[in-house]
Amino acid sequence: MDNYPERCLRGLRKDDHVTPEGIVNSPAFYPDFRVSKQHPDGAYETSINWEDDNLAVAFTLQKIDQSLYGIASLQRAVIDAEAAANNPPIVTYERKPEVDNKYHGNIIFSGTASRQLIKMIASIFAIRASLIRRPS
């Protein structure tokens, strides 16, 4: 997809989003299965920020309730590879700016995919993500 930066950022707001060893954990990328009813196709979304500029990380860290445990930084190419691995694609992404967040977007999981498969893909994202810790 064009017009997207190389990386997206996922705020880590829960303690189970990071392992005791300091590695991004799978639940960090799980979608909120409750919001699927809002999508006409039943898709699930995981909220992200796009790293459009050098202020995106600081902006994401500024929202402490969404990044208490840091940020997962994920290369867009990892999402693209998972999208290409399945026909039709099970995962894609979007840019969806909000009034108070110009960086906002979503990783979108197909509503036809099983929760087990979605969690497996979320695990791939977690393994490939880099942890950005909150400054002390």
Report on the architecture of this protein:
- This protein is an alpha+beta fold and about 140 residues long.
- The protein has one domain.
- The termini are far apart.
- It has a six-stranded antiparallel beta sheet with strand order 4-5-2-1-3-6, with helices on both faces.
- The mean pLDDT is about 95.
- The chain contains four helices and six strands, in the order ββααβαββαβ.
- Helices cover about 25% and strands about 25% of the residues.
- It is globular, with a radius of gyration of 14 Å.
- The protein has helices at about 55-60, 65, 75-85, 115-130, and strands spanning about 5-10, 45-50, 70-75, 90-95, 105-110, 130.
Structure summary:
By secondary structure, the chain is of the alpha+beta class. It is 25% helix and 23% strand.
SSE topology sketch:
Elements: E1 7-11, E2 44-50, H1 56-62, H2 64-67, E3 71-75, H3 76-84, E4 91-95, E5 104-109, H4 115-128, E6 130-132
Antiparallel strand pairs: 1-2, 1-3, 2-5, 3-6, 4-5
